[in-house]
Each structure stands twice: as C-alpha cells, then as structure tokens.
Specification:
Blueprint (H helix, E strand, L loop, with lengths): L1 H26 L58 H4 L4 H4 L48 H9 L3 H4 L5
The structure holds heme C (HEC) (2 copies).
One heme C (HEC) binds next to helix 2.
Length: 166
Amino acid sequence: MKTRALGTLAAVIVAGAMAIWMTAALAQNIGGTRGPTPLDQNAAQPPIPAEVNDDVRRGRAYPEQPPVIPHTIQNYEISLNANKCLTCHGRQFTQQSQAPMISVTHFMGRDDQVLATVSARRFFCTQCHVPQHDAKPLVENNFRDIDSLILTQTGVDPKQAVRRKP
Ligand code: HEC
Ligand code: HEC
C-alpha cells in the first residue's frame, strides 16, 4: 500500500515538473529550423538555392548509401506512364547516354531473384536518390566516415591499405 502511495506521489511530481517545463518552452522562442520567428508569425522565406548540376559523381558515406544525384532532375517525370531516369540509366540505354547503369540490386525482387527489368520496388528513384542543393546545412552533423573511425581506433589507414606498397 505504502509503495503505491509513493508511486502516485512521484507521478504527480513528474507531471507537475513537465507542465512547468512545457509552459516555459512555449513562452520562449523555441527556435528550430524556422529561426527565431515566433510561432504565430510567418518567417521570411529565403531564396531557393540552386540545384547542383556539375556532373561530378559524389563519394558515398557508407557502402549501402544510394548515391546522390549530381545533375538537375527538374521536370523529370516518374509516373505510371513514364520514367525519365530509366531513359538514361536503364540497361538498354547506357551505351548511348554514358550514364552509370542502375545496379543489379535494382533488378532484384523481394526474394533477391534477378528479374529481366527494374523491380517495382526500385521504380520510384527519388524515394532513395536525391539531387543536391548549394545550401548550408540546417543542423550540425558530426557523422564520421568508417575509415576515420578505423584509423583512430587501430592506427591503420584503410585508404593506404588499398594502395600498392613500395
Ligand atoms: C539525360 C540522361 C540522364 C537522365 C534523364 C538522368 N540521368 Fe542520372 N546520370 C546521368 C549521367 C550521364 C550521370 C553521370 C554523372 C553525370 O554526368 O551527371 C548520372 C549520374 C546519376 C547518379 C550518380 C551515380 C553515382 O554512382 O554517383 C544518380 C544517383 C542518378 N544519375 C540518378 C538519376 C535519377 C534518379 C534520375 C531521374 C530523376 C536521373 N538520374 C536521370 C544521366 C542521366
Ligand atoms: C529503395 C531505394 C532505391 C530506389 C527506389 C532506387 N535506387 Fe538506385 N541505388 C540504391 C542504392 C542503395 C544504391 C547503392 C547500392 C546498390 O547498388 O544497390 C543504388 C545505386 C544506384 C546507382 C549506381 C549504380 C552503380 O553501379 O554505381 C544508380 C545509377 C542508380 N542507383 C539509379 C537509380 C534509378 C535510375 C532508379 C529509379 C529507376 C533507382 N536508382 C531507384 C537505392 C535505390
């Protein structure tokens, strides 16, 4: 009985503290990606940054990362009727377009069986691949490449390991 009463008391104290904390947070400017504008006002809209279109393929941060798109994709249709991306990246078109072919995983069905054509699971390219914009990151990111982790923890530089030893 005593423990139950204590539990209830603790719950009341926690709820009270949360209520006070939330009121304080609402009263302040909570900031966030919209900047210091109060919640009941519209923030000034910055201009839309330019889409990167330099055709330089970007490195991947980890092996399973869908590569980012180094060219503009404005007005490229991906719908039931057409897929503009596949007109260059599809297997039949890469000799003409010189675009990298969608990799073999894009032909695999749910059971990893390789199909003759792109799997329905990979049809909507922009679900995974995104173009880049010339913009400052909205939030700080301290992601570290696995190579730099291996280097700090073992002293071995994986980049050197693939180079030919003299
Ligand atoms: C007119 C041909 C063309 C079309 C259409 C096209 N691409 Fe590309 N894409 C290329 C070429 C060529 C490259 C190689 C780099 C470059 O020249 O931009 C490339 C590069 C890429 C890469 C980088 C691959 C890597 O390994 O880094 C991705 C991802 C990509 N395209 C996705 C798309 C998606 C998604 C669409 C549709 C929204 C699309 N592309 C439409 C020609 C095209
Ligand atoms: C479900 C997520 C997903 C979808 C949808 C998807 N991709 Fe990918 N794509 C990936 C991943 C992950 C990789 C890198 C690993 C791999 O090859 O599977 C990749 C790799 C690629 C590459 C580089 C291939 C290489 O060998 O360097 C190209 C080009 C590409 N995708 C184009 C496309 C196009 C065009 C579409 C639409 C028809 C598409 N992708 C749809 C996830 C996706």
